[in-house]
């Protein structure tokens, strides 16, 4: 198979500035998408640019109050890192199976931009930012502005995803649920990631993201604001019903081979309700 194996990040960006390549990190999405008959190499639409080995694209560090994860860091490294918030580690631990997590990268999951990409709901609720590099430019976007549709995002052909970064959340409540057909190697029927904090009975943070229930992951800040201003004693059945109904307007799943729209919507809203009930005093 032909392709370019750059020795450094600069060499990779130089190559991308000159012609179109298809970056390959772990190849776990691409090798499936472009596979051909047995014994034939995959048929990529443009020349592959191998980036998984580039040292500058790998690693996890804490910088001031932020966690920074380089794009080609393996999913398995992130799963095991004590620096990474548990909501993201939990999501990764339920992705694929160990062999795929030892090849696949966080950058590949983000740039693949599938509505069922399992790192995305946690990254949405972490208010993660993605940093894109080209030969002459560095851009930083919130992940929810970067992803624009199923398999679509704002990456230009001359750019690489360099890193993803987010502030360490200081939450008191957390929920991550992936609903799939089985425990390993099952893409999500739907997933929910949620963080909240309540201090002295006041909800001062509430964030919830849903995966595989719309063309992009769903996070609705206007509804979050309504919950945030409340005291936990105000979480009445009527208020919870109102919030669940409002999210129902945003959750627009499809029927496909993995699940039905009705199942996805029903379970997503039940998990939302369960999280709101967790915040109520017992
Ligand atoms: C059996 C199996 C099970 C799976 N299970 C799950 C699952 O449960 N949940 C889930 O979310 N996914 C799952 N996947 C999909 C896949 O493993 C993940 O999306 C993984 O994170 C992809 O990472 P990668 O490095 O292999 O991506 P690649 O295949 O290398 O690349 C994916 C896309 O990202 C682009 N890209 C990669 N890195 C960069 C970069 N730094 N800059 C610019 N573009 C880049 C590529 O050009 C390509 O478009 C599964 C795949 C398989 C084969």
Q: How does this model look, in words?
A:
- The chain is an alpha+beta fold and 282 residues long.
- The protein has two domains: 9-167, Uridine Diphospho-n-acetylenolpyruvylglucosamine Reductase, domain 3 (2-Layer Sandwich), CATH 3.30.465.10; 173-279, Enolase-like, domain 1, CATH 3.30.390.50.
- The protein is 31% helix and 24% strand.
- The protein has eleven helices and twelve strands.
- The chain has helices at residues 9-18, 30-33, 75-80, 86-93, 98-101, 106-112, 120-125, 143-146, 221-228, 237-248, 261-279; strands at residues 21-24, 47-50, 60-63, 66-70, 129-133, 138-142, 147-149, 152-153, 160-167, 173-179, 190-199, 202-211.
- A five-stranded antiparallel β-sheet has the order 3-4-9-5-6.
- Helix 10 (237-248) packs antiparallel against helix 11.
- The longest helix has 19 residues, at 261-279.
- It is globular, with a radius of gyration of 20 Å.
- The model has no long low-confidence stretch (mean pLDDT 96).
- The protein binds flavin-adenine dinucleotide.
- Residues 22-30, 32, 51, 71-72, 75, 95-96, 100, 103-105, 107-109, 111-112, 117-118, 155, 160-161, 185, 187 line the site of flavin-adenine dinucleotide (FAD).
């Amino acid at each position: 198979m032909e392709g370019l194996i750059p020795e450094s990040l600069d060499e990779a960006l130089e190559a991308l500035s000159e012609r179109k390549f298809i970056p390959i990190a772990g190849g776990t999405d691409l090798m499936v998408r472009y596979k051909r008959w047995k014994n034939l190499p995959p048929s990529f639409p443009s020349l592959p640019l191998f980036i998984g080995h580039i040292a500058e694209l790998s690693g996890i560090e804490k910088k001031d109050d932020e966690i920074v994860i380089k794009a080609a860091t393996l999913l398995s490294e992130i799963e095991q890192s004590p620096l990474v918030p548990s909501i993201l580690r939990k999501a990764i631990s339920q992705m694929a199976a160990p062999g795929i997590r030892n090849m696949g990268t966080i950058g590949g999951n983000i740039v693949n931009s599938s509505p069922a990409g399992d790192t995305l709901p946690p990254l949405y609720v972490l208010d993660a930012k993605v940093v894109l590099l080209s030969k002459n430019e560095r851009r930083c976007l919130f992940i929810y502005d970067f992803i624009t549709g199923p398999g679509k995002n704002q990456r230009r052909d001359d750019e690489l995803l360099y890193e993803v970064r987010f502030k360490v959340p200081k939450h008191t409540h957390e929920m991550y649920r992936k609903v799939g057909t089985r425990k390993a190697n099952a893409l999500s029927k739907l997933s929910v990631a949620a963080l909240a904090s309540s201090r002295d009975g006041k909800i001062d943070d509430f964030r919830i993201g849903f995966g595989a229930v719309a063309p992009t992951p769903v996070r609705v800040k206007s509804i979050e604001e309504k919950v945030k201003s409340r005291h936990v004693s105000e979480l009445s059945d009527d208020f919870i019903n109102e919030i669940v109904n409002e999210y129902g307007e945003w959750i627009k799943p499809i029927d496909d081979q993995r699940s039905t729209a009705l199942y996805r919507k029903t379970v997503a809203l039940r998990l939302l309700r369960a999280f709101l009930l967790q915040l109520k005093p017992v």
